[in-house]
Structure formats: structure tokens, C-alpha cells
Model the fold of this input.
Amino acid sequence: MKCERCDNEATVHEVTILKGQKVEKHLCESCARDDGIAVQGVSPALQSLTGALASVSGPGEPEAKAPACGGCGLTYKEFRHHGLLGCPDCYHAFEALLRPMLERAHEGGAEHVGKAPKRSAGALERQREIALLRKGLAEALAAEQYERAAEFRDRLRDAGVDVAAAREAQR
Amino acid sequence: MIGGSLDPSGRGGDPARGRDGDVVLTSRVRLARNIAGFSFLTRASRDDRRRIVSLASARFAGDAVSPGLRWVDLAEADTLERHALVERRLISRQLAAGDEPRGALIAEDDGRTSIMVNEEDHLRLQVMRAGLDVRGAWDEIDRIDDRVESIVEYAFCPKFGYLTACPTNVGTGLRVSAMLHMPGLKLINEIDKVRRAAKAMNLAVRGYYGEGSEAVGDIYQLSNQTTLGRTEEEILAAFTDDILPKIIEYERHARRRLLESRRSVVEDLVHRAIGTLLHARLMNADEAVKLLSHVRLGVALGMVSGVGFDLIEELMLHAQPGHLQLAVGAELNQAQRRPARASLLRERLGAAVSAG
Done:
């Protein structure tokens, strides 16, 4: 698919609902940036590196350029191979690439409209933080650094996590 | 006693089997859920898998999320138990195999509620009901889901909903399905029309044994594939108020047509099946399901007395290797299973038929 504004390949796909009307944008990365659409941040040096890798693995396929997921390290290529994502963060990391696929698989459905967990938070940010705290707690316990472990436990409790359950899970 | 009068409505007289039991064997609803703070299972370490297992076994067992859930550690369960759980559709074949830490919570008494742990997603909640009762199953699973969610935090984001390992399940994570008996449409050669229509409505069509299986015994499993961009209510309504009633009516129409134009052919099919089941000495599982399917058609059309849908479904289950061996109480190889299966079917069906 070509970018709506120039001749480059469109790699950023955005769907928004405006007054009940679906508005789609298909842009290349630079036009998307001009438009103020956030593009997964990659430093220019890294970009040229992934660009070089992409030209080896496939002639400019957008998926070859996508950076690996920051949460679990899964690459888009690995996802395409297995069909399974690696962690909740993957939805964020590969959002632009997943969108067309999601719309195909779900009869055009692009956004969740159903049930939501009753506990308010549920935001990815918070879940990422909990994941890090859990990991910290496990590492501290493994290293027998009990003071540090207690700190992590307190912060988990502050984040609203059932620490008893978490501790049970550690056993 | 075999024979008896004909039920012109084409509806079987077995209300205990649930609504529309003449066509619908079971309804099923499942929710795919993952626990926040852990990678999905493709990227989870063995330790993470173990943590999820201990969390689920400690916190969901008993009456915490649904009455009487028993924890089954599938890494330790013997082969026979794993087979039997797959045959009851309480766990998937995928979960039964493998050597990773995994398990399931099973409702012992009703045998229709289960939570698979560490399958494709951390948690797969499932509720089954007899006959057409997708909404009843939904109400129950919705309650279980709320209780699970009060114990663990789900991986969820407002934009994509419940986050699942496979993007085809994301959003509601809801899969509704019904197991349909459609011998009428098979006999009038219109089953492919149903298959095509189902595909056009974005439904998946599977066979008796689930994913990738053939439709043994004219039994088909229909399920939704769209989980994102629709509410649970919209998914349920499309499936139970729109799609299923049409298919059920289509099958009944086929049965009526058969009775009008080829009644003796149908009667022959039904009674030949009963005859074989009552007298065969060797029987494999697929043949048993196929014959029982014909008997089921006879029951639905009022051609057979003494036999109910319950018994037929039970026998279809007991014809499967795991249940057969459990019923016999011994491990049997394939060659030993065939006479044992034939004997079990002769006895059970024979008792019902002579009592009827």
C-alpha cells in the first residue's frame, strides 16, 4: 500500500472513530511523523542498521524493519512464523503491523468495545510496572537480598497487587 | 422395543436434554485470558509457567471462582485421565500433550466447567451446557470471569481489550460454539451449503473431535471467529438469535423432507444401525459414533423408544479409547479395544432397548 501523501510505502496505519465515522490514515513513517502520529521510536543509527538488515532479509518489507518488542524481545518475523505474540507489550510494539491483520481477522473490528475488568487500572503502563516489580522481587529473593525483596513487596502492595497470592506463586 | 409412532414435528421428545436437543448436542462458551505481569506462554520461562500453575491451583481450586473445582496437574496425571478429559472436551489435546508445567481446574460434579492453565493463553475458562443454551453458559462464565479477575489482574488494554497470545482471540477473548447433529442435511446432500454459509458468516466449522477433524457421525461444531470490535452481547445475539435458529430449522426441514420422500430409507438406516450396535463383535470408535448418530436421528424422529439423547451421547463418549478403558477398568491396546467396545455397546444399548 502506498502512502497517501507521497510515493513511499505506507507503514503506519491509523484508524480513528470521529463522530461515529471511521477515518483511516495510511502513511509512510516520515509523513506520519509530520502528522504527529507517534512512530515507534528508533534512533537514526539503529534505523540505518535495521534498514541494512531489512535489505538482506527482504526488500524493504515493513515487518523486517519493525524493532523487536521491548517487553519480551519477540521480533515481528518470529510472530509471523509462529502466529503467536510473546507478551502484552507486543500489541503496542507491533500495533501498526497488526492493525490490518486484526481488521481482516475480525470483520473490520479495530477496537475493543466489550467487557472490561472491573478494577479500573488495567493500563499497559501499570502492568509493565507490575511485571518489573515481580521480576525484581523474584531476583532479590533468589539472591537472598531480603531487604530489597521487602521493598519490592511493599511497592507491589502499593500497586494493588495481592502480595499473598504473589508470594504463593513464588513458592 | 424398537419402532413406535412418528413425531411429525421432527423434534425429539426429550426436554431434559435441553433446548433444541434434537439438533444441538451441546453449547459451549470460552474466554481466553492472560495474567498481567507475565509474558505469554511462547516467551514465558519454565519458572513463570510454574508460578502461574501454583497461583491458579492455590487460588482458583475449591469454591473460590466456581463450585467444586478440582486441580488436575497435567504434568503428573496419567495418560488415561488426560485422554478422558480430552474426550469430555474439558481440556484440549494441546494441553493434554507436552511436558511443560500446566494443568486444569475441573468441576467434578457437573463436568461442564473447566479452566485450562498454560494452554495457548495463561487461562482458558470454559462452560458447557446441554442443548442450545449459549446464553446460560455465558452468564455462568461471566460470573466466573469476574471472580477470577478479583484474584488476579488480567492483561488488558482499553484499545485491544483482553490481550491474548493469538491476535485472532483478542478483544473479548470470547468463543461461542455449538455442537450440531445434522444427519438430515447430510442425507439430502445440502451439508456443503451450510459449510459455505457458515464460512460466509465468518464462522468456523469443525468436526466431532475439534480442530482439524472430520465430521464423524454428521456432528459439526460451529463457532464465531470475530472477537474484536463487537460486544459480548453482539456476538451472543448474532450466534444464538440469528445464525443457530436458521441452521436448526434448516436441519429440521431436511428431516421433514426425508420423511416425506424417503421414509423407508431413513427407517432402514436407523434400524440397521441399532442392529449392528446390538450384534457386532468388533467395533472401532468412528464406526460407533457413526452408528450412534443414525440412532440419534431415529430418536429425534420418534422411531426408537427406550433410548434418549442422554444415553446416545454417553455411549458416544464411552466408545472413545480413554472412557472405554476407564469403564472396563483396564488398559487395552487398540486390538483389545475393538471387542471391548462392541461388548459395552451391546450391553448398554441392549438394556435400554429391551426396557423400552
